[in-house]
């Protein structure tokens, strides 16, 4: 039996047992789907070491481990919750992880691996960074996803890095793109940086970082309230993305120590680069964390939050309340949580319950900014 067939058989035996925890779990949010199965089916013969990128909750990695006792897997997962879910799922399934190693998105990830399996990212920039890395290492890329999340632009990106791009037949609303025959010298320079003259800010971003080198309009609205923020000894930019809020807060308050926290590896690398580009890296500590799990109780005076509403490709309103609860724990009594959100979400009652007295600081056509004082 081929590696691909064995891996598919393994997937069929374990997929229903996979869970998403510690990420959001709900009846309509799955830990594995047909795109994982199709990636494995189209992978062909795999020997030695395989690189797996973007494995959401372990479906690809664990199927490979279960299919061949000799395979070694090098893994890069952008989301910290994905790493933790993979480990929890492995323990539940009784699969040891001695043949798995986790890596940054860099050359070491592709060492000794001539094939990389990829769950296609939503961002073309993210795909560009990954494809450039795989091509630069002389590897073959097998990338799959749900058709509703794919675009012809993905073919164009792969064609920049590979002389041959093959497209699989659709199966169960999924499809696989394969890049082979790597082109030389196509990898770009990451992170990319852009100067925003109106804010006096340089934003740096890796491909998978939300909003890239631009500044999303919700963050821009919250930035307009910088002069109204209380002076603080310790401030936190929760779900920091590229570190725009953290960097601007450090620039606005020279005496503050800022913690920028995000579970995304791309966001953390981007935020570090943004802080360094703006000369505040000595006062901005960037950490990769699931919410504020690593921060002590009652340790911050001020928290800024532009909460995400995506868990992978799924839209959910369950992420923000978790972050509000984290902020309530970490804020000192009397500390303030400033949140910007789409006005229709109506987070104010949730903030009142989770944190304390909440009032509206401002509102425009799309967004609301609230201030919650820790009771």
From TrEMBL:
Keywords: Cytoplasm, Methyltransferase, rRNA processing, Transferase. Residues 201-370 form the Methyltransferase small domain. GO terms for molecular function: N-methyltransferase activity; nucleic acid binding; S-adenosylmethionine-dependent methyltransferase activity. GO terms for biological process: methylation; rRNA processing. Residues 15-179 form the RlmG N-terminal domain. InterPro entries: DNA_methylase_N6_adenine_CS, RlmG_N, RsmC/RlmG, SAM-dependent_MTases_sf, Small_mtfrase_dom. Pfam families: MTS (PF05175), RLMG_N (PF26049). The keyword Cytoplasm applies. This is Methyltransferase. The lineage of its organism: Bacteria, Bacillati, Actinomycetota, Actinomycetes, Micrococcales.
């Amino acid at each position: 039996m081929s590696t691909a067939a064995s891996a598919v058989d393994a997937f069929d035996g374990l997929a229903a047992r996979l869970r998403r925890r510690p990420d959001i779990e709900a009846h309509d949010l799955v830990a594995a789907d047909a795109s994982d199965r199709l990636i494995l089916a189209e992978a062909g013969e795999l020997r030695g070491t395989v690189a797996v990128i973007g494995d959401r909750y372990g479906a690809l990695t664990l199927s490979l481990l279960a299919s061949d006792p000799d395979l070694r897997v090098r893994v890069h997962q952008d989301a910290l919750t994905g790493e933790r879910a993979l480990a929890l799922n492995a323990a539940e399934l009784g699969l040891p992880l001695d043949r798995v190693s986790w890596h940054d998105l860099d050359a070491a990830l592709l060492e000794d691996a001539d094939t990389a399996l990829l769950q296609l990212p939503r961002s073309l920039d993210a795909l560009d960074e990954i494809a450039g890395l795989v091509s630069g290492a002389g590897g073959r890329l097998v990338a799959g996803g749900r058709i509703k999340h794919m675009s012809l632009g993905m073919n164009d990106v792969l064609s920049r890095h590979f002389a041959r791009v093959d497209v699989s037949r659709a199966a169960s609303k999924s499809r696989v793109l394969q890049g082979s025959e790597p082109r030389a010298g196509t990898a770009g320079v990451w992170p990319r940086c852009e100067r925003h003259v109106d804010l006096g800010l340089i934003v740096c971003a890796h491909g998978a970082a939300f909003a890239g080198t631009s500044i999303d309009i919700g963050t821009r609205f919250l930035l307009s309230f910088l002069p109204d923020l209380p002076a603080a000894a310790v401030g936190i930019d929760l779900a920091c993305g590229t570190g725009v809020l953290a960097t601007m807060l450090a620039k606005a308050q020279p005496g503050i120590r800022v913690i920028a926290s995000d579970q995304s590896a791309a966001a953390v690398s981007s935020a570090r680069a943004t802080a360094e580009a703006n000369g505040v890296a000595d006062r901005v500590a960037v950490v990769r964390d699931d919410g504020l799990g690593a921060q002590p109780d009652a340790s911050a005076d001020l928290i800024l939050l532009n909460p995400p509403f995506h868990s992978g490709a799924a839209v959910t309103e369950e992420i923000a309340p978790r972050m509000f609860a984290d902020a309530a724990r970490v804020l000192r009594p009397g500390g303030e949580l400033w949140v910007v959100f789409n006005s229709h979400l109506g987070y104010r009652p949730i903030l009142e319950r989770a944190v304390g007295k909440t009032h509206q600081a401002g509102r425009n056509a799309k967004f609301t900014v609230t201030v919650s004082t820790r009771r």
